[in-house]
Amino acid sequence: MGTAQILFWSLTALALISAIMVLVSKNPVYSVLWLIVVFFAISGHYILLNAQFLAIVNLIVYAGAIMVLFLFVIMLMNLNTETEPQKSIWMKFFGVVAGGLLLSFFISFVISSADLKGKSAQLKEGEIGLIKTLGKALFNDYVIPFEIASILFLSAMVGAVVIGKKD
Amino acid sequence: MYSLHAITNSVQNWLNARLSSTWVLIIESLIVIVLAIALFAALGLILVWLERKVAAHMQIRLGPNRLGPAGIFQTSADTLKLILKEGLTPDGADKFLFNFAPFVVMIVAMLLLAPIAFANGFQIWNINIGVLYISAISSLSVIGILIAGWASNNKYSLLGAMRSGAQIVSYELSAGLSILTIVVLTGSLQMTDIVQAQQNGWWIFKGHIPVIIAFIIFIIAATAETNRAPFDLAEAESELTAGFHTEYSGMKFALFFLAEYINIFIVCAIGATLFLGGWMPFHMGNWTQFNHVMDFIPSSIWFFGKTFFLIFLIMWFRWTFPRLRVDQLLNLEWKYLLPVSLFNLLLVTLIAIMNWHF
């Protein structure tokens, strides 16, 4: 087993364990911190696929910005185990069953898809995730969707300012 | 001639001749770890001493002068004292996160060292998105500060952490935009490319007034991001006792203190690399002899000289400007610095496209 495989499996285990910990943790602050660990593990995967730019953007946007805002809000709320509403045991049970069915559906769908059969990811090669390739693809092939997405972001920001303004 | 590049090459060759590639990687990683920790210790000791000396000089005092020549061993003695102190954990605190937070802050500071070019060919990781890597990782130190503030279970700590978070998140924008101006001019995010592009002159001289504006904005944002006066609201003593590290004592406090100074070093190193040419010597047009003399000075001295000049500048700010209020701080960023740097970025793009820079 080469270094890449060892890194892949340890990152995968880290991602899965911390994703489970996000759900299992009683304290919401711990959940957010575990989610940050998940994003780190996924960024590690991107780096293994030679997509450094995607890895770093994933860190900037999710771990750096969104999770910090989550932490802000959650830390300022008064969250205790007493005030948290508890669902009944039957609700939890059916939740687990429904979630498990959805998961098995996704897994079977991915396994049976023809595009993915007998292929493994390219490690340390490929240029899809490098900034040059990505920029060219965005500004040549997908320029209109890209611009529409940026206008959407702008209008969302203006909307946030309007909602947040005192009148 | 001795250079760090030659030393690293000979170490690499020596190891390659004797060991398999996996062991070479492991041993080189160990060497890098030891060097990074040594750099951290040395920087912590020197920067704290320097800050106290600069502060004393600004206030016409002597500063530390008892231990060693000019008090150089004062910080070592202080560190020894902090190691011997008891590390208290408050009763209502979240024990695990409280003890974990100083390490998050330290690890983030250590990760930031990776893409910095300390000298010609002397760099830990020449990643092709070096500048972006730095802005991504430096935004993670907020998480450590927020954890520290929340886990302390103290209202001053929480308020300090919130202020610090708001400040770092907002000033990151203008720091990022001023870094982008240099990226636009160079056309690359890699640290080595940015340094190489400044061979015939540093960007601050080549890039006309827009780059000077970007440099000034970068220095302001860097001061704010490292939570230093005049932007030290996060630990404003008169309002919040000590901000997010109010409850910390002993070595855990020392780690926060050390991380603060390491962060100052790192932002100044980035500033020196982007605007002042990194390890590139100072060259004057066609003065061949002058250029030769400048080339003779080792590249590591150039790099550390520029970095320490910027550190001195930031220390100078601390004793020159009074502390801002929270609303003034956020107004300065969102109403002045951000629009100016956005417009400035457009100007620089125009310069880069029309090739107006030297």
From TrEMBL, chain A:
Cross-referenced InterPro entries:
NADH_UbQ/plastoQ_OxRdtase_su6, Nuo/plastoQ_OxRdtase_6_NuoJ
Which keywords does this chain's UniProt record carry?
Answer: Cell membrane, Membrane, NAD, Quinone, Transmembrane, Transmembrane helix
- Catalytic activity entry: a quinone + NADH + 5 H(+)(in) = a quinol + NAD(+) + 4 H(+)(out)
The record, for Pfam families, names: Oxidored_q3
Membrane topology, record value: Multi-pass membrane protein
**Transmembrane parts of this sequence:** 6-24, 31-49, 55-77, 89-111, 142-163
Primary site of residence: membrane
Q: What is this enzyme's EC?
A: 7.1.1.-
Location of the protein in the cell: Cell membrane
**Which family does the record claim for this protein?**
Belongs to the complex I subunit 6 family.
Q: Which PANTHER family does this one have?
A: NADH-UBIQUINONE OXIDOREDUCTASE CHAIN 6
Its biological purpose is as follows: NDH-1 shuttles electrons from NADH, via FMN and iron-sulfur (Fe-S) centers, to quinones in the respiratory chain. Couples the redox reaction to proton translocation (for every two electrons transferred, four hydrogen ions are translocated across the cytoplasmic membrane), and thus conserves the redox energy in a proton gradient.
The molecule here is called: NADH-quinone oxidoreductase subunit J
Source organism phylogeny: Bacteria, Pseudomonadati, Bacteroidota, Chitinophagia, Chitinophagales
UniProtKB/TrEMBL annotation, chain B:
Q: What is its main location?
A: membrane
Where, subcellularly, is it found?
Cell membrane; Membrane
Protein origin, superkingdom: Bacteria
Q: Which InterPro entries match?
A: NADH_UbQ_OxRdtase_su1/FPO, NADH_UbQ_OxRdtase_su1_CS
Mind listing the GO molecular function terms for this protein?
A: NADH dehydrogenase (quinone) (non-electrogenic) activity
EC main class here is translocase
Record EC number: 7.1.1.-
**Job description of the protein:** NDH-1 shuttles electrons from NADH, via FMN and iron-sulfur (Fe-S) centers, to quinones in the respiratory chain. The immediate electron acceptor for the enzyme in this species is believed to be ubiquinone. Couples the redox reaction to proton translocation (for every two electrons transferred, four hydrogen ions are translocated across the cytoplasmic membrane), and thus conserves the redox energy in a proton gradient. This subunit may bind ubiquinone.
Task: Please describe the quaternary structure of this protein.
Answer: NDH-1 is composed of 14 different subunits. Subunits NuoA, H, J, K, L, M, N constitute the membrane sector of the complex.
Protein name, please?
A: NADH-quinone oxidoreductase subunit H
Could you tell me which species this protein originates from?
Answer: Danxiaibacter flavus
